[in-house]
Write a structure and sequence with these properties.
This protein is mainly alpha-helical. The protein has helices at about 15-25, 35-50, 55-60, 65-70, 80-95. It contains 5 helices and no strands. InterPro entries: DNA_brk_join_enz, Integrase-like_cat_sf, Integrase_catalytic.
Length: about 100
């Protein structure tokens, strides 16, 4: 759960999305990247690191392991570190 520093209460979904996008824009994160993408990346990276399905489910805040399994990208996908490098290279190319 993400709590607002200003109110001490959980963010409403709309307010959090607007706040996240404002920060993402300032950081140069492309519009097609959403906050939810970070959860899928975290689940996949945790899976690669050997976390159990239960640990991944709790971290992601999923109510069922079936949902968590959908977020796991599996062995057929480039590792998280390799993918991060590819994404960084693409951003460099886009700036020329």
């Amino acid at each position: 759960m993400i709590v607002s520093e200003a109110t001490g209460q959980p963010y409403s979904p709309g307010i959090f999305a607007k706040t996240w996008r404002k920060i993402a824009d300032a950081a140069g994160i492309p519009k097609e990247v959403w906050n939810r993408d970070s959860r899928a990346g975290a689940v996949s990276e945790g899976d690669e690191a050997g976390a159990t399905l239960g640990e991944l489910q709790r971290m992601a805040g999923h109510t069922t392991s079936k949902i968590t399994q959908r977020y796991r990208r599996g062995e057929n996908v480039v590792s998280s570190q390799e993918l991060a490098g590819l994404r960084a290279e693409k951003r460099k190319v886009g700036k020329t």
